[in-house]
Amino acid sequence: MIRLWSVLGNAQKLDGGAMFGNAPRAMWSHWVTPDAGNRVPLACRALLATGINGQRVLFEAGIGAFFEPKLKQRYGVVEDEHVLLASLGKAGFAHEDIDAVVLSHLHFDHAGGLLAAWAPGKPRQLLFPNARFIVGRECWARALNPHPRDRASFIPELPGLLEASRRLEIVDGEFSTTLGPEVRFEYSHGHTPGLLLATVGGDGGVVFCADLIPGRPWVHLPVTMGYDRYPELLVDEKRRFLDDKLARGVRLFYTHDAECAMTAVTRDDKARYGVTQEVADFAGLTLGA
Ligand SMILES: [Zn+2]
Questions:
Q1: 192 Cα–ligand 1 center, Å
Q2: What is the pLDDT of residues 98-131, one digit of tens each?
């Protein structure tokens, strides 16, 4: 039996314009209210699943608390403490209990939570000492060799730490050795090369949408992020992805939506996509029940 928890990591405040690509402010400010500095609140939400191949699996780790104070401020990280660890604790788990961590890509707002909180003079330290780390082949290559446009989104020390752990599994197919048939992977390239999208529990399950659809506003087909490398490709991928999830009854899990963890998807007679059955958060949800 698979059970699921939505687990909050450190929150962020980022420039609204950058988050909504070419959508005008007059439009996106209806979806998320910006502060005086035009910044919008964003979550870094992880998905915890138990009972996958007998294991406890964490889908992503959020931004965490690894930034030194100056960078923490630049990237709008809200809290000082490592919120993900506290949230896991609330769900009844410690990071040592996690058997596998699935990373959609290695941008710091998805992988930074793998690291211990920053402390003056302390080297970066990898948490989750018993977990296998599952990363897509193209995302791994990108982290080792970033493009100038997204170089600042990576943590230079992270690939070395993951490799040194000897618990890294690189995947490039539909399934991973560690997780078996209950987690199916697909890939998208509009945000970053080989973004890993994981569906838990097959038809009627839940998909971790990562940065293909970071929250409810991005379910609207034309809405993309300024951080996407190929927005038009992303829109085409999103259409196929949403049609597939609709057909299979798979719910969408959002990492960056500050107020909503999960929804179902709808499509009207003009082929416009929307959301229904919004769930703010959940704990111990049984899949299929
Ligand atoms: Zn990203």
A1: 7
A2: 999 999 999 999 999 999 999 999 999 999 999 9
Given strand 100-103, what is the order of strands in its sheet? Answer: 168-171, 132-136, 100-103, 55-59, 45-52, 3-8, 283-286
How many angstroms does the Cα of residue 263 sit away from the middle of ligand 1?
21
Q: What is the DSSP code string of 68-130?
A: -HHHHHHTTB--SS-HHHHHHHHTT--GGG-SEEEES---HHHHGGGBPPP-TTPPP-B--TT
CA distances in angstroms from 257 to 1, 131, 173, 192, 237, listed in the order given: 27, 26, 28, 19, 20
Distance 1 CA to ligand 1 centre (A): 31
The rounded Å distance from CA 270 to ligand 1 centre is: 30
CA of 289 to the centre of ligand 1 (A): 32
Q: What is the pLDDT of residue 288?
A: 73
Q: How is residue 128 written in tokens?
A: 């989750």
| Domains, in order of start, for the chain | 3-286 (3.60.15.10)
| Centroid of ligand 1 to alpha carbon of 240 (angstroms) | 20
With H, G, I as helix, E, B as strand and everything else as coil, classify residue 272. Answer: coil
Cβ atoms of 225 and 218 within 8 Å: the answer is yes
Query: Ligand 1 centroid to 189 CA: how many Å?
Result: 11
